[in-house]
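Hello forum,

I keep getting stuck at the same step: I have a sequence, I want structure tokens, and every attempt I make locally crashes halfway through. Rather than fight my setup again tonight, could one of you with a working pipeline run this one for me? It's a single chain of 144 residues.
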Amino acid sequence: MEIAAISERPIEEVYQQFLKINEWWDGDHSWFGSATNFYIEPRVGGCFCEVDGDKQAQHMIVTFIEPNKEIRMLGGLGPLQMMGVSGAMSWAFSVDKSGATQITHRYTVSGYHKDGLDKLAPIVDSVQGSQVARLVEKLAQSLN
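Reply #2:
Ran it on my machine without issues. Output:
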């Protein structure tokens, strides 16, 4: 799955807002009911995690980082975490010809699930699409 979106904000601002995942991720897609508990450590081996007191979840691990350009992570989000699958995610940022920032989000999941992954793919794609839209919406709010 690949989703592309555009923000009028400078690439550095887009990247910094991306890292503030607790401000734009949908809390309906968290383990403990609130996105305010999310964080990303922008370093290799860093955690995309959720902490609510003693309750903790590691969603993904950062495997590549080039500030203001791309961050990659490995792991299964949500119910994928307990399946025999592997997920690879990338968020890439570039400047287009007009000077706007292009956000390109990719999430690839492969592996085995007894019921197959075909039924899950549209759901995962929809959730990821809504997350990209929320990031772009948060960035647009900063213009006002």
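The helical segments are 11-19, 121-141. If your local run keeps crashing, start a new thread with the error log.
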